[in-house]
Amino acid sequence: PFTLVSDPGAVAARAFGVKKAFLGLLPGRVTFVIDAQGVVQHAFDSQLRASAHVTEALGVVSRLARQGPPTP
What we know:
The protein is α+β, with helices and mostly antiparallel strands. Helix content is 32%, strand content 15%. The protein has a two-stranded antiparallel sheet. The two termini are 24 Å apart.
């Protein structure tokens, strides 16, 4: 039930300040968890542990789901 976004043109990467990796030759890899209000709740940046992005992002999403929506 979550929206996943791909960024083939690196438009979002530039907007979020994601830097290129390995001497600027490879695109950066950052996973952002953004809540329903559009607030970045978590950013995970690891070039060498790409599989960890999924595990860490799911943990943050689970925590946010347990907390429920924010009260105004």
